[in-house]
Amino acid sequence: MGNFYQENGLSKKKQPEHVEDEGKMWPQILAILIVSLGPFTNGVLFCWSSPFTLVITRDKENYDITEEEASYFIVLQPVGMIIGSTFFFKIAELLGRKKAVIFLALPHTITWIITIFARSKWEFYAARIIAGIADATVFCSVPPYVGEISTPTVRGFCGNTPTFILYGGQLIITVLGSYLDVQTTAYICIGIPILFAVLVSLLPESPYQLIKDGKFEEAKKAIKWFRRKTDVEQDFLDMKTDVERQISESAQWKDLWTIISNRRALRAGAFLRFSQQLSGVSVFNAYTQPIFAKAGGNISPQISSMIFLGVIWILNLFCSPAVEKFGRRPSYFYSILICGVILIGLAGYFVVDQYQMADVTSLNWFPLAGLLTWTVFYSFGLGVVPTLMLGELFSASIKSKGLCVLIAAFGLSVCLTTLMFHQLTSNIGMYSPFLVYGICCLLSAVLTLKWVPETKGKTLEEIQQALKK
Question: Domain Major facilitator superfamily (MFS) profile spans what residues (predicted)?
Answer without folding.
Answer: 31-456
